[in-house]
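Supplementary Note 3. Input sequence used for the single-chain structure prediction.
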Amino acid sequence: MKKVSIIFLLLLFCASFSFAQNNVSGPIVQSPVYFDVSPPLRDMVKNLPAHTETSWKDGIVKNKFNIRSKPKAAAPGGLTDPNLQTLNGVAITDTTMVNFDGNSNTEGYVPPDTHGDVGPNHYFQVVNCHYSIYSKTGALLLGPLANNSVFTGLPNNSNDGDAVVLYDEQADRWMFTQFSLPNYPAGPFYQMIAVSVTGDPTGAWYRYQYSFTNMPDYPKFAVWPDAYYMSMHMFTATAGNYAGIGAVAYNRTLMLAGTPSATMVMFTKPSTDEAFGWLPSDCDGPFPTGNPPNYYLYSYDGATNDHLGIYEFHVDWATTANSTFGNFLSLPVNAFTTNMTGVAQKNTTQVLDVINDRMMYRLQYRSFAGYSAMVCNHTVDVTTSQAGIRWYELRKTTGAWSIYQQSTYSLADGYSRWMGSIAMDSSGNMAMGYSVSGTALFPSIRYCGRKKNDALNTMTIAEKGIFNGAGSQTGANRWGDYSALSCDPVAKATYWYTQEYYSATGSNWKTRIAEFKFANTPVVATLDATGVTCTGATLNGTVNPSGLATTYHFEWGTTVAYGNSTTTQSAGAGSANVNVNAVLTGLVAGTTYHFRVVGVNADGTSNGLDMTFSPCSAAVITTAASGVTMTAATSGGNVTTDGGSAVSARGVCWATTANPTITGSHTTDGSGTGTFVSSITGLTSNTTYHVRAYATNATGTSYGNDLAFTTLCGVFTLPFSEPFNATTIPSCWSQVDNIGAGNVWQFGVITATGPPVLTGNYAFLNSDAYGTGVTENADLISPVLDLTGYTNVTLGFSHYFRYYAPSTATLSYSINGGTTWTQIQAWTAS
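The predicted structure, written as discrete structure tokens, is reproduced below.
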């Protein structure tokens, strides 16, 4: 990814650019200009990274971008997206298995062009202009070495960057490539491609060199059944003028076999075409059946017709002249703009490049039963100063591609999210990694995700951090150019992500490599036993396999230690609840039995809640409390079976402790089976109670499930005071809007350091997020105060506020139950 002056390019081209789907030039067929087989990479000459190619890079990688004029006036276009996501998803269990530093800037180039992929046993990472190979536990196996050391011994072997590495999982091989510009700015230019001889990337490689008349800038590669496909931006020799966009297919079958004559087929489109920044479809998992074309996709920010453009590349290796590139499809999308020019950073006025003129790596493809899917992303404006990530899932059955879901991801914290990479696992779940930065946040690395059956157009899994940056980039605006999110080919539902960060302002960039997963453990629920007799019962539950092959069984016994298990059964591998059950016999009448459902899959074990039943006892279900006031509530239950003898009494019992019994407070609400309603009275305000239904027959009394509810607070009158003498939240006070880790009010003696020295008890919020880039907030709300008859009220209190930019402490009141608040006082200084 290389750049000449942005301003120069815009002045030169904007006046004459018009975009259309012009005719394609091609097919152009070429053979490699060089081929050989290398010794094992681990035994080759160890060329260490060195700052040598200053004629090309000059320290700043010269990716040529923003070469197209902007047809749409500057506007906060992201805000018009009906699927703009500003709220964080729900936090779920995730597992970050490894998280370690990758390559760093040893050559003085900006940006790193961070790229990598994962295989069964290795993670292979490349940057400008070196690589390293790691074990999947993070141990360095080889490197850092100069990228062109993979091609040691080849002619025209210049270490010029834009390297890409891919793992071809269907062949268990690796593909490594970078361009070589030995005569820059004159041509010819070369694309160096190596394919590993085995699945070991430290072993031998088949090495190919292909020649190009125009410079093949910003090359992106993809694995497909019939070829390794490449996209590129073309620039003329010497003058460096934009010459259009290209698509190239390299004969994968011959390259995997190490055949010297592995040809390439190329199509190009002229500089006047709207297509720019397109990506070829990169297949994860099993290849599609038949002989489908490869799909090239780009985004277009039009004056009135924002859309995705898709071309089909079908290569015919038997008769290359019959290869085709066409069948154009335009898919209208939610409106967006891409006029924002820089992402803010903490503690500097230097902004970072948004690179919002193209698709972000990669266009991932997967085949599922009955349909195919592709996921992709690009950066858009949310406001004139905040960037967000527009992401898409496209689906295809027997017809054309269509947009299945789309959204702009931009949480309401004022930070920009950009430089994204998205992927879908074999269960249809997604993860998306990206950079995040703002005036109060150093550039950091985060990710989010969604499960297959979650609400559409939403990243439902809450944002999580991989690494918090501790510095900003100064002196250059280029950032990342791209990042790489990959699915582990052998570990289901597992993702690997690599991206850059700074450990301190003014230092050199570093990179991070992390492996994580959203745990797809089964979701289970124990349900009431049914068919209870004097000697048997049916145990019930539900199991959601979460997309993985799952088994279930019930544990049961006379204590919560259980001691017995039913036969293990399959719950399938779907993503919906499955009703499950097991029949018990030979039980003892009048004995209380405990049971729970247990689900097991490759991601772990889930246990349902404990339930009980008694043979020959009545079975009863508790009704949740409703109509709760300060002193009363309504509950009840449903006697589903009498256990073989008539139910003589039924009702509910309650207490402030769990599992109340009829020896305490209870109602009597008739007899027999069926539903009943119970009125609970004499309660204390602002108190949590437990309630459960009961039913008595000749065997004894049995109970339903324990449910909790809290009575309402009273309305307080003046004078009102609260000394905060307790160590817990006072009665009828509440907390809301708790944002940030550990961000809750505390009560008691302040132990935090720093002036002034405070004595006595306080309500306090130790929200020291300074320098962490974490948004924090928490509100402490008093109970309702009745001010009827008052025209003036005085609030008196002691307070201490220690200021960290841009923090604020406020005092507000509400007269409509907290729907709206009126500010009385704000503190913005210590």
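The mean pLDDT is 88. Helices lie at 6-13, 252-256.
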